[in-house]
């Protein structure tokens, strides 16, 4: 761990994925109302489906709860039916966007070059890019985890990445939604590699870029995971859908 690693303000981001009708805003309201403006508190963000971005941004305006999106197109506008640009996300009040989530890599064939374009678009629009990387079960079993993660990191992050516009999320694909997590040593090993690579490429800014862990983070395991070296927060899926569970994870950073 670098000297500064644990001084980084943690980020707990909830990825609602394709879950959430308007009624889900009640959960977001409960989360918003429970957060404090204490400077020692973690940054907290909900990334709802695109349909809820604007209402959630209205609901959270002036509060400590930030709003992020789950994907963007690389272009600022144009003939791309069904897509949403980073500028449009910004226009809703979102301040961040997840790019390269393994579900998009798998469902939509998003290879690193495409993820790079989306992260670049996020920066162009003034959004924080939350760039996801992680190995499949087969890659881990073949001993390829560090190679895969290192390669994805190098190829997915734009030149202009820094601690104010970029967050890296390490999400082992096999841990997502399965209740499985890597051992603490395995998480620490991958996060150390990511930190080394970030520092080698981006210098001092690289030592401050937040590295989130994602994959079956729950109230029961959050404290242990969040205490690991170079784990600067969490990207939470299923457990972010219920305010009580998500808030328990937020409190586990204390
Ligand atoms: O983006 C979030 C991750 O895919 C983790 O999802 P999960 O917490 O349901 O395993």
TrEMBL record:
<keyword id="KW-0413">Isomerase</keyword>
<feature type="active site" description="Electrophile">
    <location>
        <position position="101"/>
    </location>
</feature>
<dbReference type="Pfam" id="PF00121">
    <property type="entry name" value="TIM"/>
</dbReference>
<feature type="active site" description="Proton acceptor">
    <location>
        <position position="171"/>
    </location>
</feature>
<dbReference type="InterPro" id="IPR022896">
    <property type="entry name" value="TrioseP_Isoase_bac/euk"/>
</dbReference>
<dbReference type="InterPro" id="IPR020861">
    <property type="entry name" value="Triosephosphate_isomerase_AS"/>
</dbReference>
<comment type="subunit">
    <text>Homodimer.</text>
</comment>
<comment type="pathway">
    <text>Carbohydrate degradation; glycolysis; D-glyceraldehyde 3-phosphate from glycerone phosphate: step 1/1.</text>
</comment>
<keyword id="KW-0963">Cytoplasm</keyword>
<comment type="similarity">
    <text>Belongs to the triosephosphate isomerase family.</text>
</comment>
<dbReference type="GO" id="GO:0006096">
    <property type="term" value="P:glycolytic process"/>
</dbReference>
<protein>
    <recommendedName>
        <fullName>Triosephosphate isomerase</fullName>
        <ecNumber>5.3.1.1</ecNumber>
    </recommendedName>
</protein>
<dbReference type="GO" id="GO:0004807">
    <property type="term" value="F:triose-phosphate isomerase activity"/>
</dbReference>
<feature type="binding site">
    <location>
        <begin position="15"/>
        <end position="17"/>
    </location>
    <ligand>
        <name>substrate</name>
    </ligand>
</feature>
<dbReference type="GO" id="GO:0046166">
    <property type="term" value="P:glyceraldehyde-3-phosphate biosynthetic process"/>
</dbReference>
<comment type="function">
    <text>Involved in the gluconeogenesis. Catalyzes stereospecifically the conversion of dihydroxyacetone phosphate (DHAP) to D-glyceraldehyde-3-phosphate (G3P).</text>
</comment>
<dbReference type="InterPro" id="IPR035990">
    <property type="entry name" value="TIM_sf"/>
</dbReference>
<feature type="binding site">
    <location>
        <begin position="237"/>
        <end position="238"/>
    </location>
    <ligand>
        <name>substrate</name>
    </ligand>
</feature>
<keyword id="KW-0324">Glycolysis</keyword>
<dbReference type="GO" id="GO:0019563">
    <property type="term" value="P:glycerol catabolic process"/>
</dbReference>
<feature type="binding site">
    <location>
        <position position="216"/>
    </location>
    <ligand>
        <name>substrate</name>
    </ligand>
</feature>
<dbReference type="InterPro" id="IPR013785">
    <property type="entry name" value="Aldolase_TIM"/>
</dbReference>
<dbReference type="InterPro" id="IPR000652">
    <property type="entry name" value="Triosephosphate_isomerase"/>
</dbReference>
<dbReference type="GO" id="GO:0006094">
    <property type="term" value="P:gluconeogenesis"/>
</dbReference>
<feature type="binding site">
    <location>
        <position position="177"/>
    </location>
    <ligand>
        <name>substrate</name>
    </ligand>
</feature>
<comment type="pathway">
    <text>Carbohydrate biosynthesis; gluconeogenesis.</text>
</comment>
<keyword id="KW-0312">Gluconeogenesis</keyword>
<dbReference type="GO" id="GO:0005829">
    <property type="term" value="C:cytosol"/>
</dbReference>
């Amino acid at each position: 761990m670098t000297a500064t690693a644990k001084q980084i303000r943690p980020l707990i981001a909830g990825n609602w994925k394709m879950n959430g009708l308007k009624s889900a805003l009640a959960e977001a309201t409960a989360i918003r109302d429970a957060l404090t403006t204490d400077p020692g508190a973690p940054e907290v963000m909900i990334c709802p489906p695109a349909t809820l971005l604007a209402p959630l941004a209205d609901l959270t305006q002036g509060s400590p709860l930030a709003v992020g999106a789950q994907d963007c197109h690389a272009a600022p506008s144009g003939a791309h039916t069904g897509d949403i640009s980073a500028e449009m996300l910004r226009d809703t009040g979102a301040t961040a966007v997840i790019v390269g989530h393994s579900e998009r890599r798998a469902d939509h064939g998003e290879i690193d070059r495409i993820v790079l374009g989306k992260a670049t678009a996020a920066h162009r629009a003034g959004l924080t890019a939350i760039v996801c990387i992680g190995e499949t079960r087969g890659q881990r079993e073949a001993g390829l985890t560090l190679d895969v993660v290192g390669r994805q990191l190098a190829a997915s992050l734009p030149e202009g990445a820094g601690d104010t516009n970029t967050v890296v999320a390490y999400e082992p694909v096999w841990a997502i939604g399965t209740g499985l997590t890597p051992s603490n040593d395995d998480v620490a090993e991958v996060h150390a590699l990511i930190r080394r690579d970030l520092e080698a490429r981006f210098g001092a800014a690289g030592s401050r870029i937040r590295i989130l862990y994602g994959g079956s983070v729950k109230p029961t395991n959050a404290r242990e995971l969040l205490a690991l070296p170079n784990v600067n927060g969490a990207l939470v899926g299923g457990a972010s859908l219920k305010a009580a569970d998500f808030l328990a994870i937020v409190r586990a950073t204390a």
